[in-house]
Amino acid sequence: MSTSNDLGQWYKSIPPITRTWFTACVVVPFATRFKIVNPINLTLHVRPIIRRFQIWRLLTCLLFYPLSFDYLINLYFLYQYSSRLETSTFDGKPADYVFCLFFLAICNIILGIILSISVLMEAMIFSVMYIWCQLNKETMMSFWFGMQFKAMYMPWVLLLFRWVISNTLQVPLCGIIVGHLYFFLVFKYPQDFGGAHFLQTPSFLYRYFPNDRASVSGFGTPPPSTARRPDDPENNDRNPGRQIFGGRGHVLGGN
């Protein structure tokens, strides 16, 4: 009973948007495992979308991934980095985070169609991970064998890791490209180059996802917790040594 209570409390502690995304990424793959749906009908293919009007594929291709060890790794990264992003940069601004995920999804789907990638769950996760890492680039991360590096390099380290274990770069690289596009348009270009804010959250989203509180900073401006000053003790997510896949009881990047 205690274990089930702890699991329930952990689930409820996940930020709401991340919890919805996380739940969908559990339900959809397990629905194929129990043969409720055929996985062939969930992947991204243009012909059935156009000819048979199977528009649900535009959503399910972002939520489906074959059940495997890689799936568990991806699910863990989804939980870790989406939670961190939702509770830092987008804290109290659910409409902005929903719009962020929507933009990432649209761009990943476009790349998926161009490059004939049928499963895009991993690409979406890499996009979110890349954005968090750029907003917390001075945070020190630890990898296997005691290797340490700044968070800004972490997506590239994981990209290399994915290439070593699965001999593929295409899907995570697409996620990184899309994540960089969002980061550049929303943060880098307006702040560092004085450019216009090309991406603005549609006003109707605020009616369905109202701000929880007065935001510390406007959309497109990282809050103080993500300021990138290496000598600031409040930096680095209040932890100078984030762990990835190991190190003193921390696994897969978590605290």
TrEMBL record:
GO biological process, one term: response to stress
Region annotation Disordered: where it falls in the sequence: 216-255
Superkingdom of the organism of origin: Eukaryota
Subcellular location: Endoplasmic reticulum membrane
Compositionally biased region (Basic and acidic residues): 228-240
First-listed, main subcellular location of the protein, grouped into a coarse class: endoplasmic reticulum
Annotated TM spans: 20-37, 58-79, 99-132, 144-163, 169-187
Bias type Gly residues, positions: 244-255
GO cellular component: endoplasmic reticulum membrane
Membrane topology: Multi-pass membrane protein
Keywords of the record: Endoplasmic reticulum, Membrane, Transmembrane, Transmembrane helix
Record-stated family: Belongs to the derlin family.
Function of the molecule: May be involved in the degradation of misfolded endoplasmic reticulum (ER) luminal proteins.
Name the record gives this protein: Derlin
Record organism: Adineta steineri
